[in-house]
Write a structure and sequence with these properties.
Blueprint (H helix, E strand, L loop, with lengths): L3 H12 L25 H24 L4 E3 L3 E7 L5 E9 L7 E6 L4 E4 L10 E8 L7 E11 L5 E10 L1
Parallel strand pairs: 2-8
Antiparallel strand pairs: 1-3, 3-6, 4-7, 5-6, 7-8
């Protein structure tokens, strides 16, 4: 193997002009072009403009088919609660957009938290509530923090609500 490598290297150098091949300097203007496959810079610019227009249309369509919302609060603190208790709060959600707000899904991060979402669409300017009940499980003591995830037909499709309690 030790003999084959130097012989192969010698053959490669000889085939490429060998080490005695000199690089000749060139004078004059040096130009460069950017190509992507067979596309010219103008073709790439045109393709980029088409993509930009498609994105603008996609955003306009998304905005036309979504709405906005606000909550009266994003966090609720139940304070001190007993180990055997049901603790309920309401999060008021208001449709601040121009089309009906649809609360698609409301889920809790734990089985000890039960959210109930509005059943129907919320008209522009109207409000409804998301009811959240926290029931500590046996052995669930001290500070507890849970989240409720709200999915809706808004541009930011996911909204997070938080609850906190200190279980004694």
């Amino acid at each position: 193997m030790k003999i084959i490598f130097p012989i192969a290297l010698l053959g490669l150098l000889t085939a490429c002009g060998g080490p005695s091949h000199e690089i000749e300097p060139h004078t004059g203007e040096v130009t460069s072009t950017i190509t992507a496959g067979s596309q010219s810079e103008q073709e790439l610019d045109a393709a980029l403009e088409d993509i930009r227009k498609e994105e603008e249309e996609r955003v306009a369509d998304a905005m036309a088919n979504s709405t906005t919302l606000t909550f009266d609060k994003l966090k609720h603190d139940f304070g001190d609660v007993g180990t055997i208790s049901e603790n309920t709060t309401l999060f008021t959600v208001t449709n601040t957009g121009k089309i009906p707000l649809i609360i698609e899904e409301v889920t809790a991060s734990c089985g000890c938290t039960t959210p109930i979402k509005p059943e129907g669409p919320i008209a522009p300017g109207e409000s409804d509530v998301i009811e959240v009940t926290f029931t500590p499980k046996p052995g669930q003591l001290n500070e507890i923090k849970k989240t409720v995830t709200v999915q809706a037909n808004t541009l930011d499709q996911v909204h997070i609500l938080e609850i906190r309690a200190f279980v004694k």
